[in-house]
Design brief:
193 residues, Rossmann fold, globular, 9 helices, alpha/beta, 5-stranded parallel sheet
């Protein structure tokens, strides 16, 4: 286990437009900024990409078409970097979020089995896994359009076949916040015990 170990790490995974950010932002508000932070694994990738290419980081971090326009190139570059060092973006994301100062980490965007393995190997006693699932029809209502080379790539599909028993929670996010309130309350209760 590494130094400054948090009490809880919530590892969220799900497809694009499944509502991961919406749910993790809500949990952050419920738990509170005093003890909690959101670790966005894609943040260091987007930060570097913005600097190198003269792009607007805020737009890359959001949910806009701007991000989608740059997604494929960012993925290609980041995959090459990950092959050199699997933890490069994870460690950087933890630093960017000042996570070592907080007792609860919400990792909002797990994408790969290697990310999951890294957290479980480094923080085996405190990780909880959450899979957010959502029907494609609802994702489309939220603005998702299937994009070859993205939606069929490792970044979207690597965690699809993880056995359901390996997730601590599976949240079906097809409706409103009220529809998932019992699962979210259970997660909050686990963190504040």
């Amino acid at each position: 286990m590494t130094a400054n170990c948090p009490k809880h790490i919530l590892l969220f995974s799900g497809k694009r437009k499944s509502g991961k950010d919406f749910l993790t932002d809500h949990l952050f508000e419920k738990i509170g900024a005093k003890n909690c932070t959101i670790v966005r694994l894609s943040a260091p990738i987007k930060s570097h990409w913005a600097k190198v290419n003269g792009l607007e980081l805020d737009k890359l971090l959001g949910t806009s078409q701007y991000k989608e326009n740059h997604r494929a190139a960012m993925i290609e570059w980041s995959e090459a970097e990950r092959l050199k060092d699997n933890g490069i973006f994870i460690r950087s994301a933890i630093t960017m979020a000042n996570a070592n100062e907080k007792s609860i980490w919400i990792v909002s965007d797990m994408r790969r089995r290697s990310d999951l393995k890294w957290f479980i190997d480094n923080y085996p006693e405190v990780c909880k896994t959450i899979r957010v699932v959502c029907d494609d029809a609802v994702r489309k209502e939220r603005g998702w359009v299937f994009t070859a080379g993205i939606d069929d790539a490792e970044t979207e599909c690597d965690l699809d076949n993880v056995d359901q028993s390996e997730w601590n929670w599976i949240i079906r996010n097809n409706g409103t916040l009220q529809d998932v309130s019992s699962e979210l309350s259970e997660i909050v209760a686990t963190c504040i015990q």
